[in-house]
Amino acid sequence: MKKTHPYIRVKQRGEVFFLTKFTVAELKDKVDLHFRDPYMSMESLEYQEKYTDYIEKIRKKGLELSTDNEEGVQRRLQLNRINDIRNYIQNNVNNFFPNSILISANTASASDFNDDDYLNLEKNDFGEFLFPDSVRFSVIDGQHRLAGLFLAEEQYLEEFEVPVVLLLNVSLPTAAKLFSDINGKQKAVNKSLIYDLYEHVSDSDVELIRKYHTICQKFYTDPKSPLFRQIKMLGMGSGAVSQSFFIDLCSKYVEKTSYASDIQNTYEQLFYYFRSFQETFPSDWPIPKNSNELSLEELDLISREVLVDHKSQLVKTNGFGAIMRAFPKISIKADGKFENYMMFIKQLEGKISWKRAELDQKGGGTEIQRFLYERIVEVLNLR
Q: How far, in Å, CA of 233 to CA of 47, rounded?
């Protein structure tokens, strides 16, 4: 006889969800663990090998991860964290988790799903679920907690109940908004992941981030871009500057200029700006101008020579922070023309060093950014 699950129906501003509970054992075989990484094909061979190794480590623990990483909203599972959760439960019989997890029941894809079974959900405040055998659950919040519990010994899985906030058949945009709202405003989650999920959120308060996320993606994916594959998408890739840092700085400094009203114009001006640095400082820029003519392996080799061997900071946090801070002043002088950007940036040639060894003498990160910015302003007479 199938087990039923009692529920309380809750309605908030037109949205309906349910408060219920499951044992860990009930959830283990029906939950799809996942994480977001839609940029895998763009990454280096080294990164992809690390990705494969990571998946293998997770599977050796008896956990399966969904490979549909374009639809995921979660961050990667941290092995040490899920081990700590398992140990927390197993090492002390008095330890427990009173807080709920947030999941979606994907009943629409269940082969033995019957619409009639769920018609009463829209009108009854209390009732019981009788889920079909083929139902699958996706985690929106609480994935680390669940994964840690899944690793516990069998005796804990059968007896340990988990309080659940349950939604039915949640779309990716809704899941993205829920994850972003919960984690972006309450917990210290990688900002690059939050920004990446804003692509699926239509609220007006994130439109600015959506705009610069689109620009960021274009710079990362276009083989002709000065930053092709040099942005750490989701904060985890093999690029030079993180997705969140790129978006934060571009939205801060470009919005001070007259080029912020139109997304195409914004991208074009940033393209001219970055291209000018790329051509002026080719040994300090991790991607060559003819990037679309080279293989990914050749590009990775060049990037490694610039960032690891040469230790250039131009496209790293310190250098990128400085040149973006200078963008409003330089863009006014350039008047929207590439040749003018080149004329100004060329004046920096031989008068500024981007090498880490020389910059480390200037202090910490913010001090280095300030030094580089002031040096740019001084050489270009922009005070």
A: 12
